[in-house]
Amino acid sequence: MRRCFRAAVLFSVLLSPLAAASAAGQEATREETVVIAVGRDPGSPVPTLLLGNVTAREVSELLFLPLASLGPNTITIGDKDFLPGLARSWKRRDSLTLVFEIDPRARWHDGIPVTARDAALALNLARDPSVDPSRALLLRRLTSATAEDPQHLVVRFSEAYDEQFYDVIYHVSPLPAHLIDTVPRGALGRSAYAGAPVGNGPYRWVRRVPGQQIDLAANESFFRGTPGPRRVTFLIASDPEAQINLLLSGGADVLQALGPVSNVARVAADKRFTIYPVLTLTVGYLLFNQRDPADLARPHAILADREVRAAIALALDVPAMVQATFGQWATVPFGPVPRLSWIRDPAARPAMANRAGARALLRARGWVDSDGDGVLDRNGQPLALSLNYPTQSAPRGQLALLVQEQLRQVGIRIEINRLDGSVWQERRQGGNFDMDLSSATMDPSPSGLVQSWSCAGRGGSNVAYYCDPRVDSLLASAQRDRKHSLALFRQAVRTIVDDAPAVFLYSPTNPYSVSSRIRGIELNPIAPFSALWRWNPGPFR
Amino acid sequence: MLTFLVITVLLFILMRLTPGDPLQRLAGDRQVSAEEAAALRQRFGIDQPIATQFRAFVTGALAGDLGVSIEHYPMPVSTLLVSRLPASLLLGGTVLLLTFGFGIALGVLQAVHRGRRLDRWLTRASLTLYAMPSFWLGLVLAWYFGIRLHLLPVAQMHDPLLGADASWLVRVGDVVRHLILPAVTLTAVSIAAVMHYQRTALLEVLRLDFVLAARARGLPERQVLWRHAWRNALFPVVGLFGLWLPILVSGSVFVEQVFNWPGLGHLAADAVSARDYPVILGTAMLVSAQVLLGGVLADLAYYTLDPRVRHA
Fold first, then answer.
1. ipTM
2. Quick one: closest CA in A to B275, which residue?
């Protein structure tokens, strides 16, 4: 035992100088580095090739510049409210043709100039359904993208519509034609380029340690200025506790998903960090299935009735639920419209909870408590519904309990199904649920409403089979009629809220925690790290 | 070999029967069109009938190709496994060394001091640690030593900012510092079993006649204990070692997650949650092979240590 103890003491004594040497050697580099803790391995951070991986998008924001980006009001129609990127200017030749002028100072990280050919190649790749069917669908009205000369990109459309410019700049970023035009399209995702991409943004690719970290270094010849942080490291930690431990132990400078409100309070109390609220394009809602989960050809025995859905919506005290779950980090949206969306109607207010009104509505539809068991029934059928949510989402778990309790008070029995994420998704996609706590992150364009809330989206993103031809008509008009676009979108949203296909619960604000040693923080809600190169990291205190 | 094949086939079938959709994580909160979902299923071959998928898997596996990860696309599974294996071997090897090294020593100490205060306290302490959930103990240690005292790193296996020019001494020191908390956590929650096995086995042996005879011959107590009694009390612990050998590869899922240790346990847990079928199968096959190997090694150790087995 004594020998063991001596060995342990010796080991500790030896270890301390090693640690000190390690720390001293790293101090200079560490000060100039920004370490970001993220939840997932980004896979391939190449725009056009990336899927729905948020981390991949964040890495790609540092590696690649878009032709232009959305302005502060996130307005997606026209071409006035956008900020220059690789394109320093643009003009409209006619209602079907846009011309972009590429900034001649822009270079790829290997020194080759960025040209219109690179942009045309990326747009044509994105239009190819074999590369990404969803993106190709979004760009279906884009008929051609050609390089008129090295500086001028000409994009043509099959029809005149308001979001031509947005479609070109939001869904696609130019890719280096000199590196990828010889790679077969089907093999692009597995190519050497996808593993170590060459971009044109403020940071260049250094290395990836699979499942652990991604290192980027400042692009000294970035044409818009010299990046402040010399190095950016993305540390991958899938466990939320590991993420917060990394932050609090000083192992990371930035964390974007702090998890429960208690974690936010814990970090807020630590003077080494500052919390920045960033609006999101996410909306969480309690979705009602309008088809029978056992046979999707038949209407749902309870929820197909609009009055029952409206009664459920009326029975829920949504502001109180959201306050209890998110504190100040979410607001109650009006319809499926996140706070960041330009069609949000600031004057519209969700209806207040009214349990007496909810009971009256249910009574009018024949739902009464005939056997005195506290649960309403009709023709022997109890008003009992199941509610699914994914186990990975703690806020939705809390909301499920609140929904259950508040509906119990009006005589509706809720059975909560806490499902593993994959199983939850499978059931949701298959229409195998009564009620579902969903969360959707939308594109900035309100035209995305068509996917989830139109008759055409049934069986796809519209998993609850909601269909109202009035909404379809309003959404179609809103996309065509530029003059009345905003009013028509808002009218469509009001109609959706009136139909009560869901109770729209929350639109979260993301609390980004950033080390206080870093100054000049700018976090763009659409592309959070796109301005990271202007941050100014300082010494550790 | 047959056992391994049966395990592989069972794993493949059970995994595909498990509910869940691997496309869920790929899509995130984004809406995925039916066309995109179909294209993704085709890309990963999960649109095929299960028999076709199995045939493709076996053909690939025989050629050393375990397929491509769905979650880490386009990374091949074999590359992923090889990249995570050193971390698992390091953590698992350290934990086995500490658990069996200290466990055997403390078990012997308890047996020698049977019924005395030291024995009672060691029993209480080891059982208390044994009763603690490893992730909880890990979180407490991370909070105290990493966040409160800033003494030890709480995540990863390396300092992510360690320069390429750092000396090997600094690199080794860095890995050791990162290893301490996960290794101590896993050792603390598992040492009780080894201590208990060793204590009980030694107490049994110490009662036998040949020990009495050794003492009667006037051999020193240390020699009686270590050369005669302890060697004979080692067999149950060897069996336990064989059972625990898979920890070398699988690590501990919870502890690897809490400390973000880049091992196979962590990889497997993420793969299960993402329904990353090729990675689940790859890690499961590796662990199955390790379990079978552990059994074989334990039998070999019995054979070497116990002459009765050899003569039988």
1. 0.81
2. A422
